[in-house]
């Protein structure tokens, strides 16, 4: 059993402000000195239509942003929110983002009106379409933009968040950088695990779940890194991000590598003969990650970390 560390996403992005030179024309009788003056592009609030068909006036350069469960995208754009998503009175957060958000206060996941009001945000971005009356209440506090992009489409979500924040170029650069890293990881897989299958398994207590091959970390594992999809994974996935799977079904996968998400490792299964007969287990290719790691999330930051985990699994053999 191998435990691997996490890699972070680091992007240094530069913005250049340009001025326009205006020169005074020469006349036939006299020659005036050239005059140069910088002219600035007029800026201000921008009106956008959100995912609920509402026209929302987005303030210029918002400083106190609440975008609950969208923090992955803010981190990728080098934006620090006013508060971060949490559960259990702040005890549970998205731990894989804490290198960047460790000092950011928490707010309950369901965004109670009073809690939002305490942070005095100047912009709210919501990922799910709430009830109309709730949006109206939030809008009394600050402009509230509801995303149109679906969480399963992380690139579309990033581009939309980037547009709302005036960071379209950064969003494009993040996607380009990710695609390059994905290509590098895919090449590493081809060199070290050509034709091998893999599966991401999440263990909760004694229950097992397998990731959908086109969602969450499954899209990274198969679509980006290029591992083969075990037949059983395709049959079990359905429409859920993670589908329940029995140990008997897992044993039938004949899978070469397992990325096992569990806070207690695979010790609970180690004595089971079905588990022992899985090729990945026999060949010591079970790579274990905690349940608060990036494997359970969507977004450019999570996906970049998952690519790093896959690379580590290949280079640390």
Task: Give an overview in words.
- This protein is of the alpha/beta class.
- It has 12 helices and 13 strands.
- Strand 9 (198-204) and strand 10 (207-211) form a beta hairpin.
- Helix 5 (154-164) runs antiparallel to helix 6, helix 6 (168-192) runs parallel beside helix 12 and helix 7 crosses helix 12 (300-315).
- 37% of the residues are buried.
Broad shape: elongated
User: Could you say what the CATH topology of the largest domain is called?
Assistant: Rossmann fold
- The CATH class name of the largest domain reads Alpha Beta
**What structural class should be given to the helix and strand makeup?**
alpha/beta
Query: In terms of per-residue confidence, which ranges show pLDDT below 50 for 5 or more consecutive residues?
Result: 3-41
CATH superfamily of the largest domain: Nitrogenase molybdenum iron protein domain
Number of beta-strand segments: 13
Cα-based radius of gyration, to the nearest Å: 24 Å
- In total, the number of domains comes to 2
| Major sheet description | 6 strands, mixed
């Amino acid at each position: 059993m191998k435990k691997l560390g996490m890699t972070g996403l680091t992007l240094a992005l530069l913005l250049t402000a340009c001025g326009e030179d205006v020169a005074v024309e020469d006349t036939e009788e006299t020659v005036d000195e050239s005059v140069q003056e910088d002219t600035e592009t007029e800026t201000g609030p921008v009106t956008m239509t959100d995912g609920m068909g509402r026209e929302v006036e987005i303030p210029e350069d918002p400083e106190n942003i609440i975008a609950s469960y969208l923090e992955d995208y803010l981190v990728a754009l080098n934006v620090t929110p006013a508060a971060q998503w949490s559960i259990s009175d702040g005890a549970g957060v998205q731990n894989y983002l804490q290198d960047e958000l460790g000092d950011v206060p928490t707010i309950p996941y369901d965004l109670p009106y009073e809690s939002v009001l305490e942070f005095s945000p100047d912009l709210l971005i919501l990922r799910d379409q709430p009830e109309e009356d709730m949006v109206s209440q939030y809008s009394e506090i600050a402009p509230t933009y509801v995303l149109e992009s679906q969480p399963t489409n992380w690139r579309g979500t990033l581009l939309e968040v980037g547009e709302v924040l005036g960071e379209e170029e950064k969003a494009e650069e993040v996607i380009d950088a990710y695609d390059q890293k994905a290509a590098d990881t895919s090449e590493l897989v081809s060199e070290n695990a050509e034709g091998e299958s893999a599966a991401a398994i999440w263990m909760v207590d004694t229950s097992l779940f397998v990731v959908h091959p086109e969602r969450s970390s499954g899209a990274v594992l198969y679509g980006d890194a290029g591992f083969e999809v075990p037949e059983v994974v395709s049959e079990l996935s359905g429409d859920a991000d993670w589908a329940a799977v029995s140990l008997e079904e897992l044993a039938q996968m004949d899978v070469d590598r397992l990325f096992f998400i569990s806070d207690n490792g695979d010790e609970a299964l180690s004595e089971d003969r079905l588990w022992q007969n899985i090729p990945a287990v026999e060949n010591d290719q079970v790579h274990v990650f905690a349940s608060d790691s990036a494997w359970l999330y969507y977004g450019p930051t999570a996906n970049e970390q998952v690519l790093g985990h896959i690379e580590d699994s290949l280079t640390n053999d």
